[in-house]
Design a protein that fits this description.
Elements lengths: L2 H30 L15 H33 L4 H11 L5 H8 L3 H23 L2
Helix pairs in contact: 1-2, 2-3, 3-4, 3-5, 4-5
């Protein structure tokens, strides 16, 4: 796995966690609505299928968040070994904070083009670190 794939994995996991959190909230909200009776009043019973669905989504979210925490820790470790704090910050803002390139550029007070150039340098510098630390 190259540096871009390795960093992209964490960004993808972050996005997936957000999607699953949304699924969890929607499932929970549906569960909180009770089954209506024929009189139009709430029967006060919970649908067991919804409880199972909520538990499944919660387990999936927990697994994704565990994997995301591990990926974040790996990225933090690798970024801390970069000589340039600016390069490390660019990688962390984009891949860990999930900012857009425009957002990263605003944070570091550079143009988007300059930010992309810093990222390219950071990828070149972090590749040997990844190979050394994580691939043995």
């Amino acid at each position: 796995m190259n540096a871009l794939q390795w960093l992209g994995r964490a960004r993808a996991l972050s996005w997936e966690c957000e999607q699953i959190r949304g699924d969890y909230r929607r499932t929970r909200d549906r569960l909180e609505n009770t089954t209506p009776s024929y009189s139009g009043q709430s029967s006060g019973t919970k649908d067991p299928h919804k409880l199972d669905a909520l538990a499944a989504v919660a387990a999936d979210l927990q697994d994704h968040e565990r994997r995301l925490a591990m990926a974040r820790e790996e990225i933090e470790t690798a970024c801390d070994r970069l000589k340039s704090r600016l390069e490390a910050r660019v990688l962390k803002l984009y891949y860990l904070k999930y900012l857009s390139w425009g957002g990263v550029a605003r944070e570091i007070r550079r143009s988007v083009r300059q930010t992309m150039n810093i990222r390219a340098d950071a990828l070149a510098h972090i590749t040997p670190i990844i190979e050394e630390v994580f691939n043995g």
